[in-house]
Amino acid sequence: MAHVRILENDVELAEPYMIEGLPGVGLVGKIAADHLIEALGMTKHADVHCTGLPSVARYEEGDPTLSTPLRLYANDAGDLLVLQSDIPVSPDAATEIANCIQGWFDEEGVTPVYLSGIPREKDAEPPELYGICAGDGGRLLSEVDIGDPTETGIVTGPTGAMLAHAVEHDTTAVGFVVESDPQFPDPEAARIVITEGIEPLTGMEFPVDDLVDRADEIRQAKEQLAQQMQGGGEESTQVQPLRMYQ
């Protein structure tokens, strides 16, 4: 049965934003989520048990305790959550996740923030970012002057499934779309998402120097997962432009 199992910790949630970090193009969400958890020393808050996810168990170096491959972490203040995944997630499983955790979102006053890359070849200019929304998310974006989409597009994969769930059920959600390398892990795109999207929205500041200084190391560490995601298919989140006469 799908459910969120809250772990024993001292964190009291305070209507937090939740940053989604499911793997997708450029691994933008995955890199940003992993970075926030490590940089802030976030506490594991909950295991997410969901129909459709592979029946696997995760453990960490130096800790024999098993957990699910999909987890929620919280900062000390309880106003920021990060959803971290170690495995690709199918859209069907993502819909199950959304069904599972939406009631908990409502109870705790959680505002989900979804991250996705739109494939673009790299050039000298910094990646561009814009916001998308459902429910009351438009007001949140307008309050911090996040740019509107510059073209028509569609969000695919698990992040698209979770955003579609928000649209169907008229719940509040915010999404950030950033130009990303279509072939390789993209720490620079993840940095832009944090500094130009997550920071203004949450009113928080996060250390991001490591995302640039350790870019090669991060790419190498994420390369295997990126190769899995390159196969695309329904488990790869990305934004696809929809052009007339295409």
TrEMBL record:
Region (Disordered): 224-246
Alphabetical list of InterPro entries matching this protein: Proteasome_assmbl_chaperone_2, PSMG2_sf
Pfam families: PAC2
Record's compositionally biased regions (Polar residues): 225-240
Gene3D superfamilies, alphabetized: PAC-like subunit
PANTHER family: 3-ISOPROPYLMALATE DEHYDRATASE (PTHR35610:SF8), 3-ISOPROPYLMALATE DEHYDRATASE-RELATED (PTHR35610)
Name the record gives this protein: ATP-grasp superfamily enzyme
Native organism: Halalkaliarchaeum desulfuricum
